[in-house]
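Ops channel
N.P.: pipeline sanity check, posting one input/output pair.
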C-alpha cells in the first residue's frame, strides 16, 4: 500500500526540507472525526516509506526520540537544530535535531485520540521512529494529580518503563536538586477531551492511579512492542478534583499555562538524561 494521504491519515510527506525551520506545536483542534479511509491500518510499507523519506533528507540517524506533551514543546528550544522537515499538513511532526551531542528526533506535540485520530495515527510516529533506528523513547505529557500531594509510592508497574532509565533519571534529579518534587507513580490515560467527573476521579484513584492524562499510553505500548526502551515523564499541571465541595475546575488553558511555566525544569531534566544516555552520535 502506498503511503498516500488516505492510507496514513494526513501524513503528507511532501514538504521540502527547510533548514532550521521551527515547526509549530501540534495543538488540539476541533478536527472532525476521520473518514473511514483515515482509519485504515497502516502496513509496514507505510511506516517504511515515511522513515525512508526522513532518512533521505538528513544525515542524522537518531537513536533517541522525544515526544513532547502539550505545552511542553519548548523542550525543543534546547535542541540544536540541524535538519527539520516541513510537513505542511502536520505541524509538529518529527524534526531531526541534536541535543547535547546526541542525535534525537523530537515531536513538538502529539496526536490525541480525542482529536478524532485513530490509534494507528496516534502511534504512527513511534513505528516510524523505530525504522529510523531509534532505540530509546522519551515521552512527556501534562497530567492531573489524583494522589494528594502526589506522595511517594511505588506501585507495581508492567515493566514497560525502563528500570535503568528510571534509575538514571532519579540520580539526575538528585544532582539537580529536583528529588523533592519528582516522584514515581502510575499514570492513567483516559480518552478525553473531557476532564474527569468527581466520581471518575475517585474511581481512578481507588484503582491505584496517581496521575491522569489523555495521551502517552498508546505510544508507550507501541514503542515497547517495537523493542524500544521507554522513559515517561508527566508534568503535574493541576490537582484533580475529588471532593464534591471543591468548586475548582480544571481547563486546558490552565494545563498549558502550567506546562509553559515549568517547561524549563522539564527541559533541564530531559536534556541531562539524553546527554547521559550510553549512545554514540550517529550519522549516515
Ligand atoms: O499531549 P498531552 O497529554 O501533554 O496533552 C495535554 C494533557 C491532555 O491530553 C490535554 C488536556 O489538557 O492536554
Ligand atoms: O486533570 C487532568 N485530567 C485529564 N487529563 C489531564 N491533562 C492534564 N491534566 C489533566
Amino acid at each position: 500500500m502506498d503511503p498516500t494521504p488516505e492510507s496514513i491519515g494526513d501524513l503528507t510527506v511532501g514538504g521540502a526540507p527547510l533548514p532550521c525551520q521551527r515547526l509549530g506545536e501540534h495543538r488540539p483542534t476541533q478536527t472532525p472525526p476521520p473518514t473511514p479511509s483515515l482509519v485504515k491500518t497502516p502496513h509496514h510499507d507505510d511506516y517504511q516509506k515515511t522513515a525512508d523519506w526522513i532518512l533521505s533528507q538528513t544525515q542524522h540517524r537518531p537513536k533517541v526520540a522525544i515526544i513532547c506533551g502539550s505545552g511542553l514543546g519548548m523542550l525543543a528550544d534546547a535542541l540544536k537544530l540541524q535538519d527539520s522537515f516541513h510537513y505542511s499538513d502536520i505541524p509538529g511532526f518529527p524534526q531531526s535535531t541534536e541535543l547535547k551531542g546526541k542525535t534525537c528526533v523530537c515531536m513538538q506535540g502529539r496526536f490525541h485520540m480525542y482529536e478524532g485520530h485513530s490509534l494507528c495515527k496516534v502511534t504512527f510516529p513511534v513505528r516510524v521512529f523505530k525504522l529510523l533506528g531509534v532505540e530509546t523513547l522519551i515521552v512527556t505529557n501534562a497530567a492531573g494529580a489524583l494522589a494528594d500531594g502526589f506522595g511517594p509510592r511505588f506501585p507495581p508497574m508492567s515493566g514497560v518503563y525502563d528500570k535503568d532509565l528510571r534509575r538514571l533519571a532519579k540520580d539526575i534529579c538528585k544532582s539537580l536538586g529536583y528529588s523533592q518534587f519528582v516522584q514515581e507513580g502510575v499514570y492513567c490515560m483516559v480518552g478525553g477531551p473531557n476532564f474527569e467527573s468527581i466520581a471518575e476521579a475517585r474511581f481512578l484513584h481507588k484503582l491505584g492511579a496517581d496521575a491522569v492524562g489523555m495521551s502517552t499510553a498508546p505510544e508507550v505500548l507501541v514503542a515497547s512492542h517495537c523493542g524500544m526502551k521507554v522513559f515517561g515523564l508527566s508534568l503535574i499541571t493541576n490537582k484533580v478534583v475529588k471532593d464534591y465541595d471543591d468548586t475548582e475546575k480544571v481547563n486546558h488553558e490552565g494545563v498549558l499555562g502550567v506546562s509553559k511555566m515549568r517547561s524549563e525544569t522539564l527541559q533541564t531534566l530531559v536534556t541531562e538524561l539524553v546527554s547521559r544516555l550510553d549512545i554514540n552520535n550517529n550519522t549516515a
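N.P.: looks fine end to end. The pocket of hypoxanthine (ligand 2) is lined by residues 142-144, 190, 195-196, 212-214, 237-238, 240, 250, 255 (CB under 6 Å).
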